[in-house]
Design a protein that fits this description.
Helix content: 25-40%
Strand order of the largest sheet: 1-2-5
Shape: globular
Number of helices: 4
Number of strands: 5
Number of domains: 1
Oligomer: single chain
Strand content: 5-15%
Order of helices and strands: EHEEEEHHH
Structural class: alpha+beta
Amino acid sequence: MRPAHTTAVMFLPTDFVPHIPLPRLELLSEARTRGAECVWGGEALNTDTAIDLNERVTGTGTHWFPRACRPCLRRAVRAARGRHPGDCAECADATHLCETRHALHDLLLELSR
């Protein structure tokens, strides 16, 4: 029996895309831009280990397909959750009320399983 966190390719919900910055496309290898390797760490990925970060389109119309391994995405989500209050007017008043920060926290918990 396969552990629950390795069933097929997991997809990052599109709501999180603006909150989790990716490395600059021009700095990445071809394998990282097409999703064969983790966009951050360069680990080889397959359908059991990849998390799809959604197709991206650059300002020049170039399509690319970043994917990540679970540990690298977990670090990126943790960083996004930590940075978020500085970018959010709602968090400036009351961090506990911000739905985005709560959603990032929930995603981090999911990635930690």
